[in-house]
């Protein structure tokens, strides 16, 4: 610290542009972090003496499930390559890099290059999977449009940390990916309800011959059983979780299970609210939406993305274009503001995206517009 202060003092007294090049040593002075820098890049509670994480979930994370699934699929298809931007550990690709070093590409903090590299590889018959945090995918917006989607190339964007991320704050929340991706032609956008569906979505995406984005949250999955063998999902087809004649939650991704719990709360209050797992933001399951509109008439969309231009907006546009003007639509998601720092559960609660919050919003909406 003393040496750095002296360097800065000297720099202040120099005229003209000055570059200070500092080589950092992550974890310097704390042995557990020095020996495992990736683990301590972003960490929750841990034992200071040993460096062991405290209260670590015994359920696998979405990141781990993605990495393990891609590793297994790569053993069956030597055209699969993995690309990331300085986050091999954070995106679950460390084991892939160790087993298939010639098929793994870490381009450094250069998401734009990662996507363009993937596009070039796709033209040569490879099946590139670009693993990025959702928030950092924003850096490659132009490349996604012009290099991948305009050419209709089979590049898969694996967008980790979608939705509310937590303690890393406003810069790291993945709240905008649906809004900045869904209007791009040729791009299919998926969001799994659990870790098993993530595996099947990756399997499905690799069977497609067009661009695909899969968004999934940070943290542990739901602990569901895993399919063996993997199953293809029909593109653009949602899944009915439960029925209800007073309203239906149409949810995507991590919000599906929250809606399932909210449905149980409402059931105990005498309200019949169904839940559908839409699975695809693009293309929408239009047949499913038409049926809900015809049979129920109240749709409540739920997403962990900003409402502006998000999944709920896509449903609203569809209902308008189809002249389904009798449908009452409520859109639940994140507001038009930057979300502050805080734990994921705390921030979900603050924004009404818990089972209790969703149930309360739905009950109020049904009381206002539903059949008495």
Describe this protein's structure.
A 7-stranded mixed sheet has the order 2-1-3-4-6-5-10, with helices on both faces. A 5-stranded mixed sheet has the order 7-9-8-11-12, with helices on both faces. The chain contains 14 helices and 12 strands. The chain has helices spanning 2-12, 31-35, 62-76, 94-99, 111-123, 134-137, 141-149, 177-181, 195-206, 255-267, 286-295, 311-321, 344-350, 355-369, and strands spanning 80-84, 104-106, 127-133, 156-160, 188-190, 212-215, 239-242, 247-251, 273-277, 280-282, 298-306, 328-334. The protein is of the alpha/beta class and 372 residues long. Helix content is 37%, strand content 16%. α10 links the parallel β8 (247-251) and β9. It is globular and about 75 Å long. α3 (62-76) runs parallel beside α9 and α5 (111-123) runs parallel beside α7.
What tags apply to this protein structure?
372 residues, 12 strands
Low-confidence stretches: none
SSE string: HHHEHEHEHHEHEHEEEHEEHEHEHH
Strand content: 15-25%
Looking at how many chains there are and whether they match, the oligomeric state comes to single chain
Biggest sheet details: 7 strands, mixed
Mean pLDDT: 94
Q: What is the molecular shape?
A: globular
Structural class: alpha/beta
Q: Can you count the beta strands?
A: 12
The portion of residues assigned to helices is 25-40%
Q: In which order are the strands of the major sheet placed?
A: 2-1-3-4-6-5-10
Number of helices: 14
Distance between the termini: 69 Å
Using the CA coordinates, give the radius of gyration: 22 Å
């Amino acid at each position: 610290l003393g040496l750095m202060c002296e360097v800065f003092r000297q720099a202040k007294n120099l005229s003209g542009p000055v570059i200070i090049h500092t080589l950092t040593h992550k974890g310097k002075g704390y042995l557990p972090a020095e020996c495992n820098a990736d683990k301590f890049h972003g960490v929750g509670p841990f034992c200071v003496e040993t460096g062991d994480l405290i209260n670590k979930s015994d359920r696998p994370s979405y990141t781990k499930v993605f990495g393990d699934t891609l590793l297994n699929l790569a053993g069956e298809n030597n055209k699969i390559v993995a690309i990331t931007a300085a986050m091999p550990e954070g995106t679950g690709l460390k084991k892939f890099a160790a087993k298939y070093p010639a098929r793994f590409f870490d381009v450094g903090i250069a998401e734009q290059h990662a996507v363009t590299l993937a596009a070039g590889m796709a033209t040569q018959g490879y099946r590139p999977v670009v693993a990025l945090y959702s928030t950092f995918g924003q850096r490659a917006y132009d490349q996604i449009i012009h290099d991948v989607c305009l050419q209709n190339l089979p590049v898969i964007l694996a967008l980790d940390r979608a939705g509310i991320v937590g303690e890393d704050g406003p810069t790291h929340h993945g709240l905008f990916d649906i809004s900045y991706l869904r209007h791009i032609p040729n791009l299919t956008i998926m969001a799994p309800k659990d870790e098993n569906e993530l595996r099947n979505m990756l399997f499905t995406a690799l069977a497609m011959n067009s661009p695909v984005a899969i968004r999934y949250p940070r943290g542990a999955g739901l602990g569901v059983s895993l399919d063996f063998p993997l199953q293809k999902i029909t593109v653009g087809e949602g899944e009915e979780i439960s029925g209800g004649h007073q309203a239906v939650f149409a949810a995507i991704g991590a919000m599906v299970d929250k809606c399932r719990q909210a449905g149980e709360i409402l059931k105990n209050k005498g309200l019949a609210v169904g839940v559908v797992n839409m699975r695809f933001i693009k293309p929408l399951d239009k047949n499913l939406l038409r049926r809900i509109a015809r049979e129920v008439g109240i749709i409540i969309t739920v997403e962990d993305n900003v409402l502006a231009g998000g999944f709920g907006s896509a449903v609203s546009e569809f209902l308008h274009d189809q002249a389904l003007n009798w449908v009452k639509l409520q859109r639940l998601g994140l507001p038009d503001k930057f979300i502050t720092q805080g734990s994921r559960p705390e921030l979900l609660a603050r924004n009404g995206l818990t089972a209790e919050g969703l149930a309360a919003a739905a009950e109020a909406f049904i009381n206002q517009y539903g059949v008495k």
